[in-house]
Every structure is written in structure tokens, then in C-alpha cells.
Design a protein that fits this description.
By secondary structure, this protein is α/β, with parallel strands linked by helices. The protein folds into 4 domains: about 350 residues, 3-Layer(aba) Sandwich (Rossmann fold), CATH 3.40.50; about 70 residues, Luciferase, domain 3, CATH 2.30.38; about 90 residues, ANL, C-terminal domain (GMP Synthetase, Chain A, domain 3, 2-Layer Sandwich); about 100 residues, Non-ribosomal Peptide Synthetase Peptidyl Carrier Protein, Chain A (Orthogonal Bundle), CATH 1.10.1200. Helix content is about 30%, strand content about 25%. It contains 20 helices and 28 strands. The strands form 8 sheets. A 5-stranded mixed β-sheet has the order 13-14-15-16-17. Strands 18, 19, 21, 22 and 23 form a 5-stranded antiparallel β-sheet that branches. α10 crosses α11. The longest helix has 18 residues. The two termini are about 35 Å apart. It holds the Pfam family AMP-binding. This is Carrier domain-containing protein. Keywords: Phosphopantetheine, Phosphoprotein. One of its GO terms (molecular function) is phosphopantetheine binding.
Length: about 650
């Protein structure tokens, strides 16, 4: 493979283009590239979710019809269109149609709390918001919704192509989408990505060396930036997009979809990949490439996966939302021996620098802040010129001034040009690929009028488990020992923050420890108290087995048999690990909805032993939908 740089110092690569893959043109729009594929392979499968699928020609025509409908509604170039819908075939149609209409899509996770949704919708003021049957009323009830709300699934079958409606001219520098991430200022911030951010990510790239005959897995929720890679790496390269049809799925479901659809490539969060490496030991003949990223990679899990699947290429990727999902890659060799996984080298049309405190480039071997440049950079933060000016800066280089994004990540480059991640400069953390600003959680906590102050810390339990712990200083001294205070506080917080940002534990203190300078001394905060009362002993073999699984998954020694899994700090990823453990123990898959419905050791043991009717399999449609709504909300504690 040949490596070079362009006239501005951006990294370029010579790739062996797979059949049907198109060259990268920075001035070309996403839908223009898709249109070239649709004209070339109109009868090839473009996307499939379970039994539902569309060919390239069908997807092109249906998105044309929806684009014309949006234009008739008044959507103009640069307008925002909201997507408060789940991962689905109709969502893919809507994204493509919004771009064709000249708009930009705004992914909104409808399971997020009203306060979060109100802020995002109020700031962006979308002209139209697409909703679904499950969450439609939840979104419609928001006072900030001034645009039109439309049920997407109900609309699509009624559309016909209107050739009298002309589509606008859209280029590579025009806005394609706005995606919100956690913000250190106490509010989420919208990252504005242009069309070339997407096309640069998936065309002429080793990281997306896909073509006709490939099938790319789509597992991410629509508000997670991995979706950008999953959808467009398939549709702009002539490959098939294979979506997980259910919002909540098991590892067994994942493997089944890979086998049944001959999936060749997948991008997983590092946490999900580690789970995959632990439990996906059966052959996956079609799979040729797995990318993982979002957190520091585990060498142990890489080796474990390579042992079971030596034919699959593993790629560790790194990149924030502000650089269109991926900025660097490291292809892991089969004979990898180091104790630390690099984040690798810049992908094509991308520049990576390590800067000192004065924002001057550092040579190899010196640690500094990682800065990114190139065609993947965001236009900035939506409605935040101050923050855009702070984080997107001009850096002097031998090739001239270079617009860079300051990541806040620390890194070092070795003599071969390979980068290694070394942590954060600030209080941002990653939990299962989700970016979390602890300062945003603290800001939400301090808005509670019952508090004088509040802080949060991230505590690690072993190498795989991170817990966010809140420390609260109540306004009333009597609330310090009030057993109802913390539960009531946590319930209010769930209405303000996405569930993956909710602390696993909260402690009320009369005073917060201070440094001599008068700031909170986080190093002196006490650990969460360990329950003094010894939990009741398991009364059956199923309870013993479940308690052992929960100990391993949650990192808690004494498991109360009647405490809810999520109340003990359980996350979506840990639930998947527990489900995989049950499959290994019992030799059968347990419906993920049953795990939500029977979420204590005692109740789940009774369900497994047949002492509770298996209602998860015999529910009415309405009952199952209600349980899915509840499970989706809880499931957002980490990316699914």
C-alpha cells in the first residue's frame, strides 16, 4: 500500500478499489454518488431490515418521491429536518430524501427525556419532524415543536414521484446533518457535518474498502455517529446495508443476522466488540472485516477474536463526531504482540497533528493534544460561534495555515507515524463509545433547586466497568439522612439527561471536601457505600446461576435477589453480556424483553424455571409495544 500527502499535507492512500466503488470527489454530494450507484445497479439489494428490503432503484425512486413531498411542504436548501424515529428501512429512505431536498437531517433519539429533546428541537427549529407510532405523541407534546410532525411509516406508501418538482443543486460543502453530543458547558452541542464529511469517510478509503457483493451491518442507534459510516459506506459503494430489525437485540440475534445475510463487514463499539470476542465463537463464514472503536482497545479481546476467526481483518478506528466519525485506523496484524493497541495512521484526506500547549506541532515521541484536519472536519457547532471558534482553530504548519479541530485527547506519534491514544486533557469520558461530558451532568444536577452543590466522578471497577457516581449537597440538612431524597432526586434527573448519562449511584453529603483553594477535592470524595446487610442466599440453582452471572457482569460481590438490574448500575452492554452468559449456561436464547420484564434475580429465576407464564412470548401487540418503549428508555444507559 502506498502512502503520500497532498499539497496541504493531508494523508492520502492508494487503495485497491473494489468492484463498483467510485472515486472520491470533494465537491460531490452524497445523493449524487448514490444516484450513480442506483443507475448502475438498479436491481441490486440496497438495504434490508428483516423481511423488508429495497433495491437501489426502489430506494432511489422512493427517496425522490419523499424529497419532492418535503419541497412541497416548504423545505429549502439548508433547512433542518428532524428524525425522531428508530433504526429502520424507512429511516434510511428519509435520510436520503432529506439530502436530495437540499435539507440536513437531525437524528433525534425519541427515547431521550423531554428536557433534552426540547433543547435540541428548540435550538435547531426543524421545518419537519418525522415520527413513528411508538414515540409520536412523546415528540408532539413538546412545546418547542413548531414544524410539521409526520408519521414516516404511514406516509411512505402513499407517495408517488412528482417529476414537476425540481431538486436543488447541492455540493460537497453544503450541510448534510447535525448530530448532538454531550457538552462541557452543561448543554448538548450540535455538530454540523457537510456532504464531503460523509463522502470522504467512505470513498477511496482502506477503512471502507467495500463494493458490490459486500454487505455492511447496521447496528447503531440513529443518534450515534457510527450510523454515518454504516449507512453510507454501503450505499455509496454499491454494497448492501443490513440493519438489525429490532431496537434491542442479543448477541445471538447479531450472529444470526450476519449468517443469514452474508454480512461481510461491521463497525462495533469497543465494548460491543469485546462482548463479540467473548461469545461469538462459532464460524461466521461471510465476515471478512470488523472495525471497532470508541474506547481504548483490548489486546486480550483482539487475540481471542483472532484465534476463533483468523480470516477476519480487525481494524481499530478512532475519531470524534467533529471529524465525521473516523480519523485514524490501525489494521491489527495476526501476529500482534504489543501490550497497547495503537489508533494508527490518518485515513485518506485527513491530517493528524500532536500539539503542545501553545498549539505548535510536536515531533515524534512527544505527548500532546491530538488535532485533526482535512475534508472530514465539521463546519462547526450549530448556533454556537463561540464554541466553534474555540475548538476549530488555524494551526501553522510548513505547508501553511491549517484549520484543525482540537480534540482534547492526548496522544503520541512514534517514529513510523503511528499514533497512540494517551487519555484526555479534560473531564470527558467514553462509556461504550458514547461521549459523556461529566461537566454536563454536573450542570444538570446543579439546576435542582433542592441542592446547594453537586459533583460527579467516574470510577472504574476492573478494566471493563465504569460507573458514574454523583455527590449531592442538599439545601436542607435533614435531606442528608432522608432515605427518600436520593431516589426522588434521581427520578428528576432522568427527565433531564439521556439514560446513558444517569449516575449509577448517588450519595448525599452534608459538605463536599474542598481543596485549600476552595474547589471541590474530588480525590477525597468517599466511595459509594457497600450495603451492610448480607443479601439473602439463593434458594434455587437458577438463582445461584443468575447471582453468579450478575456478579461477573456488574462487578458487585453481593447481589440482592430483589434489586432491579438497572438500579444496581447495569447498562445495555452489560445486559447483552448477561444474555450471552445465559445462552452459554442454558443452551437457549432468552428473549431480551423477558430480561426487562423480569429484571431481578428472584423473578428471572422463577421465569426460567417455568413458575411465571412466559408472557413475553404471548403478549398482545399493544403490551409488547409498551414493554419495548420501557426497555428502550432503560437501554439508553449505553449505546446499543
Amino acid at each position: 500500500m502506498n502512502h503520500s500527502t497532498d499539497s496541504k499535507g493531508n494523508h492520502t492512500r492508494s487503495t485497491s478499489r473494489r468492484q463498483g466503488a467510485l472515486p472520491y470527489d470533494r465537491d460531490c454530494s452524497v445523493h449524487d454518488v448514490f444516484g450513480q450507484q442506483a443507475r448502475a445497479i438498479p436491481y441490486s439489494k440496497a438495504a434490508a431490515f428483516g423481511a423488508r428490503s429495497l433495491t437501489y432503484g426502489e430506494l432511489d425512486r422512493l427517496s425522490d418521491a419523499l424529497a419532492a413531498y418535503l419541497i412541497k411542504l416548504g423545505v429549502r436548501k439548508g433547512d433542518i429536518v428532524g428524525l425522531a424515529v428508530p433504526r429502520a428501512l424507512s429511516t434510511v429512505v428519509a435520510k436520503l430524501a432529506i439530502l436530495k431536498a437540499g435539507g440536513a437531517y437531525l437524528p433525534i433519539d425519541p427515547a431521550f427525556p423531554l428536557e433534552h429533546l426540547s433543547y435540541v428541537i428548540g435550538e435547531c427549529v426543524p421545518k419537519v419532524i418525522f415520527i413513528d407510532d411508538v414515540h409520536g405523541e412523546h415528540v408532539r407534546s413538546l412545546p418547542e415543536v413548531r414544524g410539521v410532525t409526520i408519521n414516516l411509516e404511514a406516509l411512505l406508501p402513499t407517495l408517488a414521484v412528482d417529476v414537476s418538482i425540481g431538486l436543488p443543486e447541492v455540493g460537497g460543502g453544503d450541510l448534510a446533518y447535525v448530530m448532538y453530543t454531550s457538552g462541557s458547558t452543561g448543554r448538548p452541542k450540535g455538530v454540523a457535518i457537510p456532504h464531503r464529511g460523509i463522502t470522504r469517510l467512505v470513498l477511496d478509503q482502506d477503512v471502507a474498502d467495500f463494493g458490490r457483493g459486500d454487505a455492511v451491518l447496521h447496528t447503531a442507534t440513529i443518534s450515534f455517529d457510527a450510523t454515518t459510516f454504516e449507512i453510507w459506506s454501503a450505499l455509496l459503494n454499491g454494497a448492501a446495508l443490513i440493519g438489525m430489525p429490532e431496537a434491542n437485540f442479543s448477541l445471538g440475534d447479531l450472529c444470526e443476522v450476519i449468517r443469514e445475510n452474508d454480512v461481510t463487514a461491521a463497525l462495533l463499539t469497543t465494548g460491543m466488540f469485546n462482548l463479540f470476542a467473548d461469545f461469538a465463537t462459532e464460524p461466521l463464514p461471510s465476515l471478512r472485516k470488523v472495525l471497532f472503536g470508541g474506547e481504548a482497545g483490548s489486546v486480550e479481546h483482539v487475540k481471542r477474536f483472532q484465534t476463533c476467526h483468523p480470516e477476519v481483518v480487525l481494524v481499530n478506528v478512532y475519531g470524534p463526531t467533529e471529524c465525521s466519525c473516523i480519523a485514524t485506523l490501525y489494521t491489527v496484524p495476526q501476529d500482534f504482540q504489543s501490550l497497547e493497541l495503537p489508533i494508527g495512521e490518518a485515513i485518506a484526506n485527513t491530517r493528524v497533528l500532536v500539539l503542545d500547549e501553545g498549539l505548535r506541532p510536536l515531533p515524534a515521541g512527544m505527548e500532546g493534544q491530538l488535532a485533526l484536519a482535512g475534508d472530514g472536519l465539521a463546519l462547526g457547532y450549530s448556533h454556537r460561534p463561540d464554541l466553534t471558534e474555540e475548538k476549530f482553530v488555524m494551526i501553522g504548519t510548513p505547508e501553511g495555515p491549517l484549520r484543525c479541530y482540537l480534540t482534547g485527547d492526548l496522544a503520541v506519534m512514534d517514529e513510523n507515524g503511528t499514533f497512540f491514544f494517551k487519555g484526555r486533557r479534560d473531564r470527558q469520558i467514553k462509556i461504550n463509545g458514547k461521549r459523556i461530558e461529566l461537566d454536563e451532568i454536573e450542570a444538570a444536577i446543579r439546576r435542582d433547586p433542592r441542592l446547594l452543590d453537586g459533583v460527579v466522578t467516574c470510577q472504574s471497577q476492573g478494566t471493563a466497568i465504569k460507573r458514574i457516581v454523583a455527590y449531592l449537597r442538599p439545601r436542607l440538612a435533614s435531606d442528608v439522612g432522608n432515605p427518600n431524597f436520593v431516589p426522588a432526586f434521581m427520578e428528576r434527573l432522568r427527565h433531564a439527561l439521556p439514560a446513558y448519562m444517569i449516575p449509577s449511584a448517588a450519595i448525599a453529603l452534608a459538605e463536599l471536601p474542598l481543596t485549600p483553594a476552595g474547589k471541590v477535592d474530588r480525590a477525597q470524595l468517599p466511595p459509594p457505600p457497600i450495603e451492610v446487610a448480607k443479601p439473602a442466599a439463593p434458594e434455587s440453582r437458577s438463582e445461584e446461576m443468575l447471582a453468579r452471572l450478575w456478579r461477573n457482569v456488574l462487578g458487585i460481590q453481593d447481589i440482592p435477589l430483589d434489586r432491579n438490574f438497572f438500579d444496581l448500575g447495569g447498562t445495555s452492554l452489560q445486559l447483552l453480556r448477561m444474555q450471552a452468559g445465559l445462552l452459554a449456561e442454558l443452551g437457549r436464547n432468552v428473549d431480551v424483553l423477558a430480561l426487562f420484564k423480569h429484571s431481578t434475580v428472584r423473578e428471572l429465576a422463577r421465569f426460567l424455571d417455568g413458575k411465571i407464564p412466559k408472557t413475553a412470548r404471548s403478549m398482545t401487540t399493544d403490551q409488547r409495544a409498551a414493554l419495548q418503549r420501557k426497555s428502550r428508555s432503560q437501554f439508553r444507559r449505553s449505546a446499543s
